[in-house]
């Protein structure tokens, strides 16, 4: 018996071994035999020095990009809506808390001031309507308009700051301590007096009119080109009780000046507040009266 058939191999195994040996002998030496379970690409040949082929990633389609843009946009819009809602809720809560902290008497004062402003606006509207009707019904409209203008000259001169004024009102004094009161706070004080019905206001030596402005400087404040220093004296002609309540109301501008700037604020009522400061008539370049 041949040594190949010594019992260690069967006939089938012997034939497969012989065929595999012949196939390996016939293959070129430069090409390594194929191993079962691994497929080698032609470009993986290390003897030829070729590099493996790396396939490019497929480009993203327009649909996928559009979907991603829509998703990002939706997220940003939702975030902005959430921020706006949060800001609105905080503002409403602050307004509610500011009114909730007021006492019943203080709420009545605020309501009275608002009602007085509405009544004055309605009264002024009625006066203007009567004057307009009088001009339209007059035979000589120019003469009637001149008469009404002369009639309103005194009141308009006081409102525009061309004429001095005297009447009941208050005198507000703000004296700084270690901290300086800024221009925005003093402007709020003037606006509170206006909202309370002040007809004429002066700030130290400056007559306050519609185009009055305040600025911060190194040494104090600047009001309409005039440099002012503490103590600041604000005179206002109007209903004394309403003007005093506008400054001394709890949580109002007077309290903020005391707490934030550690300054002293005093409000004195007077039956004779005199404001002698006047303003020069402004020369209008573009505005012309309606004929």
Automatic annotation (TrEMBL):
<feature type="coiled-coil region">
    <location>
        <begin position="104"/>
        <end position="145"/>
    </location>
</feature>
<keyword id="KW-0175">Coiled coil</keyword>
<feature type="transmembrane region" description="Helical">
    <location>
        <begin position="69"/>
        <end position="90"/>
    </location>
</feature>
<keyword id="KW-0812">Transmembrane</keyword>
<comment type="similarity">
    <text>Belongs to the UPF0749 family.</text>
</comment>
<feature type="region of interest" description="Disordered">
    <location>
        <begin position="1"/>
        <end position="49"/>
    </location>
</feature>
<dbReference type="InterPro" id="IPR010273">
    <property type="entry name" value="DUF881"/>
</dbReference>
<feature type="compositionally biased region" description="Basic and acidic residues">
    <location>
        <begin position="11"/>
        <end position="27"/>
    </location>
</feature>
<protein>
    <submittedName>
        <fullName>DUF881 domain-containing protein</fullName>
    </submittedName>
</protein>
<dbReference type="Pfam" id="PF05949">
    <property type="entry name" value="DUF881"/>
</dbReference>
<keyword id="KW-0472">Membrane</keyword>
<keyword id="KW-1133">Transmembrane helix</keyword>
């Amino acid at each position: 018996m041949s040594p190949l058939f010594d019992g260690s191999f069967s006939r089938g195994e012997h034939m497969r071994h012989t065929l595999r040996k012949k196939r390996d002998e016939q293959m070129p030496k430069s090409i390594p035999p194929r191993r079962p379970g691994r497929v080698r690409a032609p470009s993986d040949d290390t003897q030829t020095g070729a590099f493996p082929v790396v396939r490019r990633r497929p480009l993203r389609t327009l649909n996928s990009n559009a979907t991603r843009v829509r998703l990002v946009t939706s997220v940003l819009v939702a975030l902005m809506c959430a921020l706006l809602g949060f800001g609105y809720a905080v503002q409403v809560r602050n307004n509610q808390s500011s009114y909730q902290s007021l006492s019943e008497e203080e709420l009545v004062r605020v309501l009275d001031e608002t009602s007085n402003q509405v009544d004055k606006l309605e009264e002024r509207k009625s006066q203007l309507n009567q004057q307009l009707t009088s001009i339209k019904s007059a035979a000589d409209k120019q003469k009637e308009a001149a008469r009404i203008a002369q009639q309103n000259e005194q009141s308009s001169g006081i409102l525009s700051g061309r004429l001095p004024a005297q009447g009941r009102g208050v005198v507000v004094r703000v004296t700084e301590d270690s901290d300086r009161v800024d221009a925005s706070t003093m402007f709020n004080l003037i606006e509170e007096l206006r909202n309370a019905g002040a007809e004429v206001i002066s700030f130290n030596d400056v007559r306050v009119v519609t185009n009055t402005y305040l600025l911060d400087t190194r040494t104090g404040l600047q009001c309409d080109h005039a440099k002012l220093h503490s103590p600041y004296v604000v005179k206002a002609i109007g209903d004394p009780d309403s003007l005093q309540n506008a400054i001394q109301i709890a949580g109002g501008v007077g309290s903020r000046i005391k707490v934030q700037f550690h300054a002293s604020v005093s409000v004195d009522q007077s039956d004779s507040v005199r404001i002698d400061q006047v303003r020069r008539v402004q020369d209008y370049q573009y505005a012309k009266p309606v004929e």
